[in-house]
Amino acid sequence: MLSLNRGTFLRKGLGVLRVSLSSSGCGNGGGGGERESRVAMESTLKDARDGAAAVDVDPKLTVSGGVEDVYGEDRATEDQIVTPWATYVASGFSLLRDPHYNKGLAFTEKERDAHYLRGLLPPVVITQQLQEKKMMHIIRQYEVPLQKYMATMDLQRLFYKLLIDNVEELLPVVYTPTVGEACQKYGSIYRRPQGLYISLKEKGKILEQLKNWPERSIQVIVVTDGERILGLGDLGCQGMGIPVGKLALYAALGGVRPSACLPITIDVGTNNEQLLKDEFYIGLRQRRATGKFEDFANHNAFKLLAKYGSTHLTFNDDIQGTASVVLAGLLAALKLLGGTFANQTFLFLGAGEAGTGIAELLALEISKQTKAPLEEARKKIWLVDSKGLIVSSRKDSLKHFKRPWAHEHEPVKDLLDAIKAIKPTVLIGSSGVGKTFTKAVIEAMASFNEKPLILALSNPTSQSECTAQEAYTWSQTNESLSFKHKGRAIFASGSPFDPVEYNGVVNVPGQANNAYIFPGFGLGLVMSGAIRVHDEMLLAASEALAEEVTKENFDKGLIYPPLSNIRKISAHIAANVAAKAYELGVATRLPRPENLVKYAESCMYTPNYRSYR
């Protein structure tokens, strides 16, 4: 794409073409070129008013070539080659068709005159607020979440404003759980490019592909190879929905400029037979490449972080983002549970990248608070995988990232027996397998905890270890259990659940959504110019989020603040992360701002309509 400054004109023998204007452009206009364009337009309109037929108007005087078939599209047969000329014209239909600049009925009278929009829009002029209300009305007409997802993806600038103002309603639409279904059906709902696809076919040409992306000032890249999408497995090229969704949240919730975000999918095939047979599948129709290629699945995720974390600015949201948001919830929950963090006993169901990533950050927090060695802190944390409790007798057969959690204990075959043996105060599900927190499991937790803390983190909703209803209902007083005066569970999940009324009390489940952390975390890295991510930054982000939970939230049983305050929350997280970056000496934007919270707020992208010259 040719990027042109305001007031620049192209001449291609087709009359004078006025090029798209950027809302942040500089300069004072086109001078003589502006007048020449206006004269050409006025001459064309005068001919039309004087009775000349449209086809009789001199094509040399018409803006954008008028009705003449200057590109040869109409005269060409199907097997003839046509040159795909593409010029962004800051007037008329071209402006209305550009989702980055189109304001619909919100164009002012002055803008309609300046950009040749008269007659192309109804005469009414509305405010941006009314435009938003109208679009939300349209979105709410759809009953199917995937239809709402498709409607929001077509909005561009207005999309970010709608998401900011209606975050609790739209977040489940543009991110989990709906984004999972969107990825599964991405081929059949694909409409326009939203990211960069790099496949094995382009091996050796990656730099050329990167140059094809229209933006040059990129600050955040989200990349996937589609092998492990939520709890849905290998979705290949159709995993693009995840980078697109995450970057939408970086922009709307964290204030990173959308033009500075780049979604990338690396397509090396898929082992999903259903997709390979799907006529609408958009990726390479071959089985996933193996060998020298390092995929992003859990068996390589830790290796890649270790390999590149010390030399590049990298962040794995599945590992580090999930860990940070879970730690924040646990820190906040202590105000309900009482006691210290180091006195808790944690039991995980699931020992993949998410589970072990969370466990490691919890151990770091225990080590920080107690000044104990990390190896000692890990002994407060136990993990159960598909073969049972991870213990030292299994060490030789374990993958490298599970070995630090192999403690001395007799073998235990399943989760229920592990709960009875370990007696955890906190139960965390990261297994990706639904319905694994059974009634017996929840009742066992409630038998020795007055307020059992239960986090069912697996996404999407169908893969959640239990529902909010089940956690609240099964953890109530049961005469058959040894603990007679139990309160309800403190529950949070990865996907959203509706409030649950039980015995006249409304219980509001929290959502341990990574969206609390990664948008503000990314903003903190950008605004400080950090060159590396350190674990201390993740702890700082968790502490900032935990501090945002109010007494009013606690009274409802919540361990996370409402998402309606997410921009404010993101600013505080960004400030904490940036402060830690400056403290560790990895920040490059100097000098350090005096008030990092105010600076974070000033750096945030605001998706309001701009006024056009």
From TrEMBL:
Q: Does the keyword Metal-binding apply?
A: yes
Residue span(s) of domain Malic enzyme NAD-binding: 319-582
Malic enzyme N-terminal domain ranges (all copies) = 152-309
Annotated active site: Y175 (proton donor), K246 (proton acceptor)
Q: What's an example GO cellular component term for this entry?
A: chloroplast
Where, in this chain's numbering, is a divalent metal cation bound?
E294, D295, D318
This entry's Gene Ontology molecular function terms read: malate dehydrogenase (decarboxylating) (NADP+) activity; metal ion binding; NAD binding
Bound cofactor: record note? Divalent metal cations. Prefers magnesium or manganese.
Cofactor(s) of this protein? Mn(2+); Mg(2+)
In this chain, (S)-malate is annotated as bound at R228, N459, N513
Its domain of life? Eukaryota
Family per similarity comment: Belongs to the malic enzymes family.
Quote the protein name from its UniProt record.
Answer: Malic enzyme
